[in-house]
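Customer escalation, tier 2.

The customer says the design service returned an amino acid string that "doesn't look like it belongs to this structure." They asked us to rerun it and document both sides in this ticket. The original structure tokens are below, unchanged.
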């Protein structure tokens, strides 16, 4: 069984917000500047930076500043740990439901 870590808690808290999920979705297609990430949202650049800060603190996103441009990218290893946690629960429940189905078929 995977050990639950505080980082995993931070990841799911970060992903609970639809704006941050949309930002993560955009970054799965490749690195993006802060202004690229801000474009689809009706919010200030400061608000976008707050969302990015939460994503960075969760470990899901890494940023790098070159000159005046801050580039954001997904950390695949962090995303994978959340995926692994979900997959483990899915496997457990699929196994339980298969056993239940087998029991019901016997009757």
């Amino acid at each position: 069984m995977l050990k639950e870590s505080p980082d995993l808690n931070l990841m799911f808290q970060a992903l609970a917000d639809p704006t941050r999920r949309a930002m993560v979705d955009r970054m799965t297609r490749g690195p993006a500047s802060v202004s690229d990430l801000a474009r689809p949202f009706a919010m200030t650049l400061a608000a976008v930076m707050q969302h990015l800060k939460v994503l960075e603190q969760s470990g899901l996103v890494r940023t790098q500043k070159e000159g005046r441009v801050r580039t954001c990218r997904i950390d695949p290893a962090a995303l994978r740990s959340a995926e692994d946690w979900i997959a483990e629960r899915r496997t457990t429940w699929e196994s339980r439901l298969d056993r239940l189905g087998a029991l019901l078929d016997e009757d």
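Tier 2 assessment: The sequence is consistent with the input. The radius of gyration is 18 Å. The mean pLDDT is 90. Sent an explanation to the customer and offered a walkthrough call.
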